[in-house]
Amino acid sequence: MIVTTTEGVAGYRVLEVKGQVFGVTVRSRGIGGNIVASLRSLVGGEIHEYTALLEEARRHAIDRMVQNATAMGANAVVMMRFDSSEIGEIMSEIVAYGTAVVLDRA
After folding, report:
1. What are the tens digits of pLDDT across the range 55-87?
2. Which of 79, 51, 86, 52 is nearest to 65 (CA)?
3. With contact defined as beta carbons under 8 Å apart, do 83 and 95 qualify?
4. Are the beta carbons of 68 and 21 closer than 8 angstroms?
5. Of 12, 5, 11, which is closest to residue 77 (Cα–Cα)?
6. How far apart are CA 78 and CA 101, in angstroms?
7. Strand partners, 83
8. Domains in the chain with CATH codes
9. Which of 36, 39, 61, 70 fits as disulfide partner to 96, beta carbons 3.0 to 4.6 Å?
10. Following CA atoms 4, 102, 64, 94 in sequence, which dihedral angle do they give, to the nearest 10 degrees?
11. Which residue, 98, 100, 91, is CA-closest to 25?
């Protein structure tokens, strides 16, 4: 499965547009992770616990998006984007979305 943030893929042409596709995940750090992250925020700098959480969440969102695109009969997702939001100050929602298409070599 080709996943790209661009509208097209060099060397390929779009044969069919299957439609919008997305993958969503909601994550929360455990109480221990929140305490460690809170302590790190006092001194500033990167909070590695949250960075790892969000990187993993993005990977899962992409995986779910790819599964949905595959179920629609697509072999690529173009114009892929991420969106994120906070739920109740303790959870993060990550969405990967794009357009599922069928590509063929040009």
Report:
1. 999 999 999 999 999 999 999 999 999 999 988
2. 79
3. yes
4. yes
5. 5
6. 7
7. 95
8. 2-105 (3.30.110.70)
9. 61
10. 40
11. 91
Residue with tokens 């990187």: 55
Amino acid in position 9 = V
The number of CA neighbours under 13 Å toward the Cβ of 51 is 6
Helix (H, G, I), strand (E, B) or coil at 88: coil
| Amino acid found at 102 | V
DSSP state of 55: H
Structure tokens at 8: 């097209």
- pTM for the full predicted model: 0.84
Long-range contacts of 80-85 (CB under 8 A, 24+ apart): 80/3, 80/4, 80/5, 81/5, 82/58, 84/54
Task: Look at strands 76-87 and 2-3 and give their pairing.
Answer: parallel
- Asked whether the beta carbons of 1 and 78 are under 8 A apart, the reply is no
Predicted pLDDT of residue 71: 98
- For the stretch 30-58, pLDDT in tens is 665 566 666 666 666 777 777 888 899 99
